[in-house]
């Protein structure tokens, strides 16, 4: 049997563009399938955020009696907790995706990819896109669970889109950052070791508790923490009428971070390839 | 004249700089001809894999040049990658995916259309005997199955040059034979094969020519038979009735130097090699002598290796090999996680 493959002499920039798309798509698929086939890794990204949301709702629901909270923040603590759960789930997922990339490097699948005529950028983009797909699935499942539990998306149908899109962009931003770390270190342990820092950053934001009630250094850190503003954008979709600031906080801010983090990841890849 | 599919000149790779630099590969010259199976023989850490990694564009040479399939491995790396098949010892196969999924992925990476990729995948699964296991996750495969899948993956785009890095290391004898047969079949179809091995028998059985590499340098290169002949001629040992010993000795002396052998046998180093065996038997028969036992001992590749390096390859890892620094690829350093 004779098969038709691209002749090395005939490659053009347009065929390179098509290749980048095809390679990225194929590697995205692999990334998603790989995640779904590791239930032990996938489960914490679903269970822990829901557990923290349930715990927060039980512990802090008294806030719903505070007029400031109900007038300015959320009608119920459950409604408030949705965005925090989404943020936490996305951070878990992004770390796992980067961990998979580091495992590829450590175990040699990365080298298999490098030995093929694949676009090097696709190796990173495929992993990031896979992370986005998982984040979208995750936020849809979370929303379904929270709606059944009594939460409401106050900003209407576009608010759903806002939450899903914001989560995908956040996944892109965080995955890029963690992927850069994975490529730089080539070690799943380093990636997993970095996760507690991300987790701390999340606790020092308004993901689990409103900034309004924070005091002192805790409040200062939360004010400067970009995660506070991203999660508040998402909380806006859940608890208020639709506004441009919700998109600015939960879409634009992650997008800016994503651009920087993807550049970091691609730079790390370029350095790794140059060092070989 | 068509250019040889693999040409390396002064190919070198050092790790580190200055006086502390480790010379993993130090000035390798190679020319592998079209349709050849070329064996790269040496112990762990000799520089085999580092050379292959340079030839397959995974590692940049510190010095020297290499052309594979007509392309410069540094300047035209992408064209080299499109032209070659690579099955690396250290390049793991994703254990979470099935054999069929990996073949489909590989087909996409090499630019095959969806239909062509599917057909080629089925053909290769059949060829390496993995059709029944195609939809099982690779994590459940045995070592032999993984190697066969690895070979299939490297053949998706019908490469004209194939690199196999220690393709049978760790395999049981049956799996090893199966893989040898497949390599021979591929080569019979015109594929040029460069394989690295630390197994003497593998190099002897498969390779048309071999290069022995030690401490990053090629110390011998040629056809196994030629290399063995350089070490010495084969020894033919015979035993005859004690009353016929003197007459037999005189006949044997016509074919080469008489050599000491075990008691009760006569030995001769055949000057023209194994092709003289028939003549010796004919001469003994014509003289009316009855041969009770006959044995031909060829010099082995291990003899060649020992003559070239000063130590034997068999058991070299454990005790006999002189101290050296092994350069371990990053992928090999740790083997934890989901493999």
Name its key features.
heterodimer, A: 276 residues, mainly alpha, 80% helix, elongated, B: 339 residues, six-stranded mixed beta sheet, four-stranded antiparallel beta sheet, 14 strands, 24% strand
Architecture overview:
The complex is a heterodimer of chains A (276) and B (339). By secondary structure, chain A is mainly α. Helix content of chain A is 80%, strand content 0%. Chain A contains eleven helices and no strands. In chain A, helix 4 runs antiparallel to helix 8 (188-203), helix 7 (157-185) packs across helix 8 and helix 7 (157-185) packs parallel to helix 11 (244-275). The longest helix of chain A has 32 residues, at 244-275. Chain A is elongated. With 339 residues, chain B is an alpha/beta fold. Helices cover 35% and strands 24% of the residues of chain B. Chain B is built from 13 helices and 14 strands. Chain B has helices spanning 48-55, 77-83, 99-109, 114-127, 143-154, 173-188, 200-206, 224-231, 245-252, 277-286, 301-309, 316-320, 330-333; strands spanning 6-15, 22-32, 37-41, 63-68, 71-72, 84-87, 161-165, 192-197, 209-214, 217-222, 235-239, 256-259, 266-270, 293-297. In chain B, the strands form three sheets. In chain B, strands 6-7-8-3-9-10 form a six-stranded mixed sheet, sandwiched between helices. Chain B has a four-stranded antiparallel sheet with strand order 2-1-4-5, covered by helices on one side. A four-stranded antiparallel sheet of chain B has the order 12-13-11-14, with helices on one face. In chain B, a hairpin with a 6-residue loop joins strand 12 (256-259) and strand 13 (266-270). The radius of gyration of chain B is 24 Å and the shape is globular. The model of chain B is unreliable at 317-339 (pLDDT under 50). Classes of the chains: A mainly alpha (276), B alpha/beta (339).
């Amino acid at each position: 049997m004779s098969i038709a493959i691209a002749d090395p002499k005939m490659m053009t920039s347009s065929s390179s563009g098509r290749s980048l798309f095809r390679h990225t798509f194929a590697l995205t698929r692999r990334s998603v399938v790989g995640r779904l086939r590791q239930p032990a890794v996938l489960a914490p990204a679903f269970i822990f955020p829901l557990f923290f949301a349930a715990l927060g709702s039980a512990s802090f629901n008294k806030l719903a009696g505070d007029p400031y909270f109900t007038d300015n923040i959320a009608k119920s603590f459950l409604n408030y907790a949705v965005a925090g759960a989404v943020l936490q789930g996305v951070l878990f997922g992004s770390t796992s995706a980067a961990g998979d990339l580091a495992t590829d490097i450590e175990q040699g699948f990365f080298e298999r990819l490098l030995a093929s005529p694949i676009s090097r950028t696709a190796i990173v983009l495929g992993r990031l896109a896979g992370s986005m797909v998982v984040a979208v699935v995750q936020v849809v499942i979370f929303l379904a669970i929270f709606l059944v539990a009594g939460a409401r998306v106050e900003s209407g149908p576009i608010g759903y889109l806002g939450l899903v899109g914001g989560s995908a962009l956040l996944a892109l931003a965080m995955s890029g950052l963690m992927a850069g770390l994975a490529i730089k270190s080539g070690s799943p342990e380093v990636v997993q070791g970095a996760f507690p820092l991300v987790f701390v950053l999340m606790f020092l934001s308004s993901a689990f508790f409103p900034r309004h009630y924070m005091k002192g250094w805790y409040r200062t850190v939360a004010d400067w923490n970009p995660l506070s503003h991203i999660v508040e954008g998402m909380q806006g979709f859940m608890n208020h009428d639709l506004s441009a600031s919700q998109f600015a906080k939960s879409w634009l801010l992650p997008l800016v971070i994503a651009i920087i983090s993807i550049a970091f990841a691609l730079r790390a890849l370029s350095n790794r390839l140059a060092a070989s | 004249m068509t250019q040889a599919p693999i040409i390396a000149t002064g190919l070198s790779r050092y790790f580190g700089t200055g006086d502390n630099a480790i010379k993993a590969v130090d000035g390798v010259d190679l020319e592998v001809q079209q349709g050849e199976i070329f064996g790269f023989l040496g112990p762990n850490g000799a520089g085999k894999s580092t050379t292959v990694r340079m030839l397959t564009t995974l590692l940049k040479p510190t010095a020297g040049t290499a052309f594979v399939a007509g392309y410069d491995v540094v300047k035209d790396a992408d064209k080299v990658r499109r032209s070659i098949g690579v099955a690396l010892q250290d390049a793991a196969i994703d254990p979470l995916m099935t054999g069929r999924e990996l073949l489909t992925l590989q087909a996409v990476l090499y630019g095959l259309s969806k239909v062509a990729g599917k057909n080629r995948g089925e053909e290769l699964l059949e060829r390496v005997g993995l059709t029944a296991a195609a939809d099982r996750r690779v994590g459940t495969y045995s070592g032999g199955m993984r190697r066969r899948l690895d070979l299939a993956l490297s053949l998706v785009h019908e490469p004209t040059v194939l690199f196999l890095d220690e393709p049978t290391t760790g395999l049981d004898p049956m799996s090893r034979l199966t893989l040898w047969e497949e390599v021979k079949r591929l080569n019979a179809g015109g594929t040029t094969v460069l394989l690295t091995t630390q197994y003497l028998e593998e190099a002897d059985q498969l390779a048309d020519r071999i290069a022995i590499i030690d401490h990053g340098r090629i110390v011998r290169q040629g056809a196994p038979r030629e290399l063995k002949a350089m070490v010495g001629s084969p020894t033919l040992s015979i035993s005859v009735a004690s009353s016929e010993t003197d007459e037999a000795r005189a006949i044997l002396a016509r074919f080469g130097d008489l050599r000491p052998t075990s008691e009760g046998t006569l030995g001769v180093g055949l000057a023209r090699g194994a092709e003289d065996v028939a003549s010796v038997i004919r001469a003994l028969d014509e003289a009316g002598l009855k041969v009770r036992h006959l044995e031909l001992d060829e010099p082995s590749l291990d003899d060649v290796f020992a003559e070239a390096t000063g130590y034997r390859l068999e058991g070299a890892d454990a005790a006999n090999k002189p101290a050296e620094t092994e350069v371990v690829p990053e992928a090999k350093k740790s083997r934890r996680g989901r493999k």
